[in-house]
Design brief:
By secondary structure, the chain is α/β, with parallel strands linked by helices. 29% of the residues lie in helices and 24% in strands. The structure holds cytidine-5'-triphosphate and magnesium ion.
Length: 229
């Protein structure tokens, strides 16, 4: 897709980070010298294909987020807005701030601080043949089983058909806006699942193991190691 197409990024950072259990929301815990969210915002800001960024933060953190963007020189961040109770709500609130002329919207988790430029390139390049959405995905190392509430195995899923998906996930802006308008959007654990529900054509490209999601303290340590590697 050529440079003429406007590409915006929505960085969702409005979660509380319960499993990390820090005193700040997860996006604002220290990651080296900056808050965690600064790493992915900085990577998107530096990426030549990204025209603008909307940052979605916990209510009450908007000003600190704006200050942080100034501090790191992330000039593409247009606005920092408060998120909602679920990830899907936060994405929808962010997408509402994206200008109408954006053709593609990248949605990225602030909880994934390591965002290699080539991962963004790979996701955007896959739009060339008419997809509605493109998501980065990794093959699974473990076998996955479906189990019932009593812990009995119901079935073993064919591993070669399974993928663990990451962000950034990119979508045609009109399709993403339509998918987010669904009344039951809160039940979608990623944006792609909402686009799938309205019949969207979602493709996968190779993910990047460095783009791990920080959930626990150990993940935070691992991400710091990866960054300095
Ligand atoms: N997120 C968000 N708004 C929410 C919930 C999540 O913007 N209401 C964002 C998080 O900030 C994070 C991403 O979605 O960048 C993935 O969510 P997750 O890793 O689950 O983060 P938290 O919800 O903050 O963590 P936890 O589930 O441990 O509370
Ligand atoms: Mg969560």
């Amino acid at each position: 897709m050529g440079d003429a197409v406007a590409v915006w990024a929505v960085v969702v950072a409005a979660g509380s980070g319960e499993r990390l259990g820090a005193e700040h929301p997860k996006a604002f815990v220290a990651f080296g010298d900056d808050p965690l969210v600064a790493a992915s915002v900085g990577a998107l800001d530096e990426h030549p294909a990204v025209d603008g960024i909307v940052l979605v933060v916990p209510e009450g953190w908007e000003e600190r987020a704006t200050f942080m963007c100034d501090e790191i020189g992330a000039g593409k961040v247009a606005v920092a807005v408060a998120g909602g109770p679920t990830r899907s709500d936060s994405v929808a609130l962010g997408v509402a701030e994206v200008p109408d002329d954006a053709a593609l919207i990248l949605v990225h988790d602030a909880a994934r601080p390591i965002l290699p430029a080539e991962l963004v390139d790979r996701v955007l390049a896959a739009f060339a043949d008419g997809a509605d959405g493109v998501v980065p995905a990794l093959e699974l190392a473990d076998t996955v089983k479906r189990v019932d509430a009593t812990g009995r195995v119901v079935e073993t899923l064919p591993r070669t058909e399974l993928r663990a998906v990451q962000t950034p996930q990119a979508f045609r802006a009109d399709v993403l806006r339509r998918a987010l308008a669904a009344p039951d959007r809160a039940s979608g654990t990623d944006c792609a699942s909402l686009v799938e529900r309205i019949g969207g054509d979602v493709r996968v490209v190779a993910g990047d193991a460095r783009c791990l999601k920080v959930t626990t303290r150990a993940d935070l340590e691992r991400a710091l190691e990866l960054r300095s590697a």
